[in-house]
Amino acid sequence: MSQKMNVLFVISEAEPLIKVGGLGDVGGTLPLALKNLPESMTDPYVIDMKVVIPYHDQIKRNQWPVEPVVSFKVLSRNGFITANVFRALKTDLPIYLIDGEPIQNTGTYSSDTSIDTKKYAFFSIAALEFCRAIKWKPDLLHAHDWHTAVAIQKLSQIRSYDTFFSQTKSLYTIHNLPYSGGNHPEILYAFDIHQAFDPEIPQYMRNLPMALGLDAADHINTVSKTYAEEIMTDGFGNGYQNYLRSHSGKVSGIINGIMMEQWNPSAEKVLYKNYSVDTLSDRIENKRMLQQELWLPIKDQTVLFVMVGRMTYQKGFDLCVQALRQMRDLDWQIIILGTGEDSIQKTCLSLSNEFPDRVRTELRYDEPLSRRLYAGGDILLMPSRYEPCGIAQMISMLYGCIPVACATGGLKDTIKDPFDYPDEYTGFLFSHPDVSAAEWAMRRSIEYFQDQDNWRQIQVRAMKQDFSWEKSAKKYFDLYKSIQSSK
Ligand code: ADP
User: Fold this and answer.
1) pTM metric for this prediction
2) Which of 63, 114, 207, 232 is deepest in the core (most CB within 10 A)?
3) Which residues of the chain have pLDDT under 70?
């Protein structure tokens, strides 16, 4: 006899409707991967998943087709606020969109934290009330990052007396701990949300949405095992480390997957030449054409580094830029693609000025170019100071572009270094986010690159890896089951 497991999946972004960053990938792909798990893996359960996101103005502007589902009122101390729920049509799984006054006329994220706090507090409470409105009792609430933490807190406040939610358990997934949300006790008060209670959470942080989610969740997980360990340390805990250490029994990590079919160098039209592990010798065409596209000298023997990503302090671009200056004795080229903080953009541009025959900096978001970089570059540099999961390193490995990365979070969990895996290595890691460590790893990678036969073997190993969602989706399902059966 099959048994239904109702999962309310509340998140701020879900592709294909809305994607600002990696969170949108997870919102769109993890629920789908869970839905597609073979029955034999979920037996005796059948997962009934409802994904709920805000009806952001950006989705309205895209005119994605929707149908109305239900309307209801959300109670606040300033009066009732109407919530209108729509269902997106033409998506592979049900995605529900919540609309209401606090959600309208806002960006997906706002630089004004009071606007965002109100928007996401209303959204989080409305997501719970939506279940009541359609008479669908969730067994599990799965909420993500600070935006939806209020749902976790609200649930823990009401389930002792509210029979509709009395059996609902909660899972809170941290995708990026430093983003805690704004400090607005007056907005929480307006929605009758209590502050975090645990004495291990510093007093001044107790009204932050992230604190509420951590404190009230039945279980907490992050997007890699290593990041789950790191957030319990002073270096990565952002003030929550004492709390997380004292509740380590409810903290775990599951690495994100990627949609493998979206990242396939043998089929993509934007590449100069398609290739696979079986036709790896064709890959060089992509390097030559890339060098030509960006007016770099066309040289097969010169190692071509690439760096792709958001230009924020987290991503550590500055470390590699400085390391490259110290490596002027070696033969290398680099193409940097990204946008972000002004100072980091300038740092990259100044490297281009210093090495006009070796460096190109492209300051824009350009997905086709990013794919050509993964396909034509020899080595991806990913010197993140912290990296909860990271997907660029997984994509680049599937394209045979070998990563050099800081051994943190998901980078450590997905890249195998020759020191630890002498026969199976797929990239190069350095243990501290500083210039000399980055330089050491980059020099090491160039040494390996000189032995082209061996390099080919590294590429084959990297490209053959399975980063698909299925394994991780199964881990999420097992976690759902264990949370549901816990007291
Ligand atoms: P994060 O989610 O922290 O930004 P990830 O490594 O998880 O970092 O994901 C970054 C994704 O965004 C990768 O797929 C990367 O290729 C893509 N990306 C980042 N910046 C750019 C850019 N300027 N142009 C094209 N793609 C980009």
Assistant:
1) 0.95
2) 207
3) none
